[in-house]
Each structure stands twice: as structure tokens, then as C-alpha cells.
């Protein structure tokens, strides 16, 4: 799957850094009340080496219940899907898999005290246990992703996925949209559109600061896009 090669990497990173910084400052001032926070949300952010798309579902008490992070690298095709599950707001499961090599990945389960109750890393040559450093790294990453999801949600940064068909963009809900994009993103989309068979999959962020094109691919993201009530 072609994704982001040739895309406007440096501007994306600059905008993302500025956006995350402003959102972190916003979160220090204060967040919305619980009644304004959706139980299901989708967002995303730009990392140094790729794009992260997040889908999150909370329980009725607004504790995190399920968080899915799909990481698409700038180069290469090994998309990484990481699933985080929570019980009463506490991390219960980390499950990582690879789209290109579905037999590879890790599973980490935690008890109510936060201790590891099960661990496994699946490699091409067999299974092995994770080291203490590996476990701490995965726990740290889980905390980071959860914190970012809360900050992005508080800043009303939403992930939208859709389709491009012969110059017309629609969301996965089949709603037509007009995206206001910077020149580099417009050129990026135009180049990909010229090479496509009149159809492309798109993913973008929408925020008070504007829109940010994340992915342009020969793939229909809408086929597998998670919906409310489907994460658990």
C-alpha cells in the first residue's frame, strides 16, 4: 500500500509540533466538563517517522475502555496496530500486531495492581518473553498515547477518513466535503490523483486551526474504520 512517500513531510511535522504544543498548553489551563466529552472519538498526530491514527471509546464514567493506535510509517508498508484495553480506567491489555506480518506482535496483560500477568512476543522463529525494559517501554508508550488522545480530544482535533473520487471528496459517512488545504497538500493530492484509477482513500485532521492531510492511499479506509460500540 502506497501511503505517504512524496508527501509534505516537513510542513506536516512543523504544524503538528505547533499544534501539540498549543494543545498541551490548553490542557494545563483546563479541560471541558465530562458532559462535553464524547464517549467515542477519533484523532491523530504526526510522529517523527510516521502517522498515528487513534480511535478511543470510554465507559459511562468517562474512563478509557479501548484505545486503538494505527501507526503508518512514512516509508515501508509495515503498518503497526496497537490495541490498549482498560478495566475501571486501569491498563489491562496491550496487544500489538503488524499488518504486513500478522503472525508477529506482542501481548501484555496486567492485573489490578498493574503487575504483568501474561506476556508474549511472537517472532518469525517462535515465541519469547519480553524483557523488563521492553515492558516498561510498552507501558510508557501506552501512557503517552492515552495522554495525547486526551489532549487532542480536548483541543477538538478530530480524525476524518473518506474517499476521493474523480475530484469529489466524501467522508466515510458519504457526506461530501470541501477541504481547505495548504499548497503542498494540494500538490501531493493532485500528484496521487493523477496516478490513481480515479479513486483514493484519504485521512485528514480537522481542528480549529484548520485541516491537515495525513494519508493518501490506494486503499479504502472506510471498509475497516472503527465505529462507536465496535472497539470493545
> What percentage of amino acids are in beta strands?
35-45%
SSE string, helix = H, strand = E?
Answer: HEEEEEEEEHEEEHEE
Q: So what's the overall shape?
A: globular
Rounded to the nearest angstrom, the distance between the terminal CA atoms is 27 Å
Major beta sheet summary? 8 strands, antiparallel
- When the domains are counted, the total is 1
Widest β-sheet, arrangement of strands:
1-2-3-4-5-6-7-8
Category from helices, strands and their pairing: alpha+beta
Mean pLDDT, all residues: 84
Count the DSSP helices. 3
The radius of gyration computed from the alpha-carbon positions, rounded to a whole number of angstroms, is 18 Å
Helical content stands at 10-25%
Number of strands: 13
- The parts where pLDDT drops under 50 for at least 5 residues are 1-15, 21-32
Task: State the main characteristics.
disordered N terminus; globular; 8-stranded antiparallel sheet; 5-stranded antiparallel sheet; 39% strand; 3 helices; 13 strands; alpha+beta; 232 residues; single chain
Draw up the topology in text.
Blueprint: H1 9-29, E1 40-46, E2 50-58, E3 64-73, E4 80-87, E5 90-98, E6 105-110, E7 116-123, E8 126-128, H2 132-154, E9 158-165, E10 168-171, E11 176-177, H3 183-195, E12 199-207, E13 210-217
Antiparallel strand pairs: 1-2, 2-3, 3-4, 4-5, 5-6, 6-7, 7-8, 9-10, 9-12, 10-11, 12-13
InterPro entries: DUF1481 (IPR010858)
Protein name: DUF1481 domain-containing protein
Amino acid at each position: 500500500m502506497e501511503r505517504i512517500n512524496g508527501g509534505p513531510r516537513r510542513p506536516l511535522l512543523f504544524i503538528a509540533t505547533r499544534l501539540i504544543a498549543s494543545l498541551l498548553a490548553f490542557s494545563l489551563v483546563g479541560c471541558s466538563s465530562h458532559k462535553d466529552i464524547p464517549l467515542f472519538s477519533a484523532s491523530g498526530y504526526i510522529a517523527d517517522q510516521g502517522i498515528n491514527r487513534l480511535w478511543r471509546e470510554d465507559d459511562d464514567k468517562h474512563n478509557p475502555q479501548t484505545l486503538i493506535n494505527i501507526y503508518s510509517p512514512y516509508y515501508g508498508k509495515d503498518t503497526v496496530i496497537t490495541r490498549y484495553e482498560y478495566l475501571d480506567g486501569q491498563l489491562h491489555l496491550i496487544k500489538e500486531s503488524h499488518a504486513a506480518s500478522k503472525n508477529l506482535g506482542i501481548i501484555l496483560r496486567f492485573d489490578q495492581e498493574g503487575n504483568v500477568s501474561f506476556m508474549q512476543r511472537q517472532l518469525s522463529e517462535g515465541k519469547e518473553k519480553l524483557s523488563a525494559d521492553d515492558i516498561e517501554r510498552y507501558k510508557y508508550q501506552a501512557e503517552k498515547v492515552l495522554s495525547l488522545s486526551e489532549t487532542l480530544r480536548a483541543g477538538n482535533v478530530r480524525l476524518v477518513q473518506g474517499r476521493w473520487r474523480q475530484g469529489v471528496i466524501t467522508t466515510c459517512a458519504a457526506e461530501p466535503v470541501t477541504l481547505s488545504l495548504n499548497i503542498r497538500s494540494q500538490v501531493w493530492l493532485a500528484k496521487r490523483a493523477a496516478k490513481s484509477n480515479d479513486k483514493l482513500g484519504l485521512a485528514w485532521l480537522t481542528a480549529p486551526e484548520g485541516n491537515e492531510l495525513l494519508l493518501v492511499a490506494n486503499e479504502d479506509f472506510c471498509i475497516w474504520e472503527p465505529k462507536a460500540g465496535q472497539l470493545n
